[in-house]
Amino acid sequence: MAKVAFIGLGVMGYPMAGHLKVRGGHEVTVYNRTAAKAERWATEFGGRAAATPAEAARGQDFVFACVGNDDDLRSVTTGKDGAFEAIGSGAVFIDNTTASAEVARELYAAAREKGAHFIDAPVSGGQAGAENGVLTVMCGGDTEAFDRAKPVIEAYARMVGLMGPAGAGQLTKMINQICIAGLVQGLAEGIHFGKKAGLDIEKVIEVISKGAAGSWQMENRHKTMNAGKYDFGFAVDWMRKDLDIVLAEARRNGAKLPVTALVDQFYAEVQTLGGSRWDTSSLLARLEK
Ligand SMILES: NC(=O)c1ccc[n+]([C@@H]2O[C@H](COP(=O)([O-])OP(=O)(O)OC[C@H]3O[C@@H](n4cnc5c(N)ncnc54)[C@H](OP(=O)(O)O)[C@@H]3O)[C@@H](O)[C@H]2O)c1
């Protein structure tokens, strides 16, 4: 049992912190910008709610965060009353936010200056993965800190891997998003074509999902896509934030991502259709408008 803090109780963080308490059996202190959510969590799970990230981080063995983007992450770490004001020497900060590799390297260096450790640890598996505690966690950082953190992270994960030094977890998550972008557009075009051809989409997917075209997106999203339902899941706004990070990194490392850049623009069109909070499978809505 370890002393653990969790900063950011959103769609992902709230259940993840819950698993650290219930499944991991750890002593958990939470912080959330909107304090009412932290109070609700503390009542539901029997932990402690702190008033600032610094207060949450003081005296902990592990400090987790899952906030929105690079700036949000800086604000809860190196910002005023941020966790790095109070994090102890030897403690490990585990960041589950999807952010840039650059901010991961920056915070790794800032943590080391304090004698603490930093692991970038973005996740895949969505809201359902967080609620069921079966996320995939892609880590970057030092082996020794990772080895200590891994059994704690496993409270909310099915797969936890160290991909390389600081930033490597975020780079791996970028590959995950590159693969998803092209794949979902392909799936949207397939369903769109099938409807135009007058085929029974359910029947089509039942058969082709068992062949070489099968994917998690096909299995889990075809029904709702076919029904034109998108008010759930991983929001288009979040996907555009992630693709922005991906395309900036590609400009730096010279990778050619023509399909990813195109699909990013398709998502921009979905936003103009009012789909900012729709699931990423809403690429089909754009084809059907
Ligand atoms: N949702 C998914 O399916 C999914 C899947 C994989 C990865 N992710 C990634 O996980 C991260 C969190 O996603 P989410 O869906 O949990 O988002 P969310 O529901 O919007 O929650 C964001 C959390 O961050 C806090 N926050 C945001 N900006 C802050 C700031 N400047 N200072 C302090 N706290 C701040 C929010 O506090 P308030 O409660 O006060 O707003 C909230 O607790 C994102 O990087 C996202 O890309 C999400």
TrEMBL record:
The kind of enzyme this is, by top-level EC class, is oxidoreductase
User: Where is coiled-coil annotated?
Assistant: none
Database matches in InterPro entries:
3-OH-isobutyrate_DH-rel_CS, 6-PGluconate_DH-like_C_sf, 6PGD_dom2, 6PGDH_NADP-bd, HIBADH-like_NADP-bd, HIBADH-related, NAD(P)-bd_dom_sf
Q: Where is the 6-phosphogluconate dehydrogenase NADP-binding domain?
A: 3-162
Task: Give all residue intervals belonging to the 3-hydroxyisobutyrate dehydrogenase-like NAD-binding domain.
Answer: 167-285
Q: Which UniProt keywords apply?
A: NAD, Oxidoreductase
What family is it from?
Belongs to the HIBADH-related family.
PANTHER family per record: 3-HYDROXYISOBUTYRATE DEHYDROGENASE-LIKE 1, MITOCHONDRIAL-RELATED
The protein's name in its UniProt record: 3-hydroxyisobutyrate dehydrogenase
Species source reads Sinorhizobium americanum
